[in-house]
């Protein structure tokens, strides 16, 4: 990636990596990732849906709703006005949804896809012309292990991550000759605020009450034991800096295990163990 020497005495790395834009950087994985990129020598712009002050460690915060075309174009224009280029885009903004798939209306399903999938597409479309002019750039899309495996009671969220996997892998082949690479980072379960990142179904059905409550308890348990956000941030930094990036970077031991299981073990074995893990009857 782009790098050059910066002025002596900087508290950051002595290498100026370039300009990074991180969506959903107000908290959790997004904030920690923005901080990690900043420490590594990037000038970092982060986005949030509501106004936020710049961080003490030098991350410039901008307002952006990734579901709004004009807001996306505006934030990219503002980064270009201030910095002149975009070397790395990290598409991190996303929302979760826990419940039976049929418990969500089509409108709720559309809302989840609008953030997780179309938000990524909007941001990507906005920076691709910039990176094409520069003849270099790196777009890092946050996927999930739920983009690799079935996810009972997370069907709509998992669907968005499956979509991101297919979109990213396909797009990388389209733009590689233009100097831009598209890379996936696949976290496992990460210790972030459960309540801030999960949405409940908008038409709950009584038949799912008991099992939905069990799924929520399980989610809380595994989130509490999950990887620190720094594990994901480290994977993003590796993906940003690799001269010849891999297509996928798994973040954490659990993510590596799931990827191996999905790729190499028989489907019946995966199915049985998935139900066991989710405490579902055979």
From TrEMBL:
GO molecular function: oxidoreductase activity
Pfam families reported for this sequence: adh_short
Coiled coil: none
SMART domains hit by this protein: PKS_KR
Top enzyme class: oxidoreductase
InterPro entries, sorted: KR_dom, NAD(P)-bd_dom_sf, SDR_fam, SDR_oxidoreductase
Keyword Glycosyltransferase belongs to the record: no
Domain of life: Bacteria
Keywords from the named record: Oxidoreductase, Plasmid
E.C. no: 1.-.-.-
Domain Ketoreductase as annotated: residue spans: 18-210
PANTHER family noted in UniProt: SHORT CHAIN DEHYDROGENASE, SHORT-CHAIN DEHYDROGENASE_REDUCTASE FAMILY PROTEIN
Family classification: Belongs to the short-chain dehydrogenases/reductases (SDR) family.
UniProt protein name: Short-chain type dehydrogenase/reductase vdlC
Organism the protein comes from: Rhizobium favelukesii
């Amino acid at each position: 990636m782009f790098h050059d020497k910066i002025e002596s005495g900087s508290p950051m790395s002595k290498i100026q990596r370039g300009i990074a834009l991180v969506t959903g950087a107000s908290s959790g994985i997004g904030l920690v990732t923005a901080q990690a990129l900043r420490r590594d020598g990037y000038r970092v712009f982060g986005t949030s849906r509501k106004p936020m002050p710049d961080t003490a460690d030098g991350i410039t915060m901008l307002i952006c709703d990734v579901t709004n075309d004009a807001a996306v174009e505006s934030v990219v224009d503002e980064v270009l006005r201030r910095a002149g280029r975009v070397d790395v885009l990290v598409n991190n903004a996303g929302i979760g949804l826990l419940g039976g798939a049929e418990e969500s209306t089509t409108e709720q399903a559309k809302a989840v896809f609008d953030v997780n999938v179309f938000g990524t597409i909007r941001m990507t479309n906005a920076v691709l012309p910039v990176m094409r002019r520069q003849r270099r750039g790196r777009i890092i899309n946050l996927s999930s292990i739920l983009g690799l495996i079935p996810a009972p009671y997370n069907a709509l969220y998992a669907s968005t991550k499956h979509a991101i996997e297919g979109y990213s892998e396909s797009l990388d082949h389209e733009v590689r000759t233009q100097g831009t690479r598209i890379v996936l980072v696949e976290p496992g379960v990460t210790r972030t605020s459960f309540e801030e990142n999960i949405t409940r179904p908008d038409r709950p059905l009584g038949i799912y009450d008991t099992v939905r409550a069990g799924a929520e308890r399980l989610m809380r348990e595994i989130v509490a034991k999950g990887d620190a956000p720094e594990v994901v941030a480290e994977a993003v930094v590796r993906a940003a800096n690799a001269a010849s990036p891999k297509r996928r970077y798994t973040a954490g031991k659990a993510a590596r295990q799931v990827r191996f299981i999905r790729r190499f073990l028989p489907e019946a074995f995966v199915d049985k163990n998935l139900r066991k893990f989710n405490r579902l009857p055979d």
